[in-house]
Amino acid sequence: MKVILREDIDGLGKSGELVTVKDGFGRNFLLPRKKAVLANEQNIRQLEHEKSVITARNAKLKGAAEETAKKIGSVQIVIKRKVGEQDKLFGSVTALDIAEALAAQGQQVDRRGLHLPEPIKTVGKHEVELRLHRDVVAKIKVDVQPE
After folding, report:
1. Which keywords label this protein (predicted)?
2. Do 119 and 74 sit in the same domain of this protein?
3. Which of 7, 53, 108, 138 is 20 to 30 Å from 100 at the Cα level?
4. Which of helix, strand or coil describes residue 143?
């Protein structure tokens, strides 16, 4: 099945691309969620027209993401947790905890954009990536301290 993507999908393609997917994936996931449209003649002509609009929209989103990255890059988060022996945390610090701490400082972010290879389980300073756009990544400094 050939479809035209309406938004970026990891591992598949970028917005506005013509891709071939399996019938079930297109019919059951992409089309009902309006992440793609069928690649018929009319939609392909419309895609050519909308490519300039998509390019302008992506440039605007990237500019906004870069501006947000500058603001967030200067923010340092302090999270206090209970610790046991050898400065190991009871539990861990997750992306949700970091997103809530950012919200408390007035920076609203989507927790799904926070990239933690694994939850933070030790006391100390850590650096966490926040993906605001596919080309823009901000680094957040997280300081985990014992209570």
Report:
1. Ribonucleoprotein, Ribosomal protein, RNA-binding, rRNA-binding
2. yes
3. 7
4. strand
How many domains are there within the chain? 2
pLDDT at 137 over 90: no
- Residue-number span of the structural domain to which 130 is assigned: 70-146
Closest CA to 127 of 113, 112, 140, 114: 140
Write the CATH number for 36. 3.40.5.10
Measured CA to CA, the distance from residue 95 to residue 110 in angstroms comes to 9
pLDDT tens digits for range 47-101? 887 777 878 888 898 898 888 888 888 888 899 988 888 878 888 888 899 999 9
* pLDDT tens digits, 10-25: 889 988 888 999 999 9
Helix (H, G, I), strand (E, B) or coil at 32: coil
**pTM (2 d.p.):** 0.63
Give 36: exposed, middle or buried? Use CB within 10 Å, 0-12, 13-18, 19+. buried
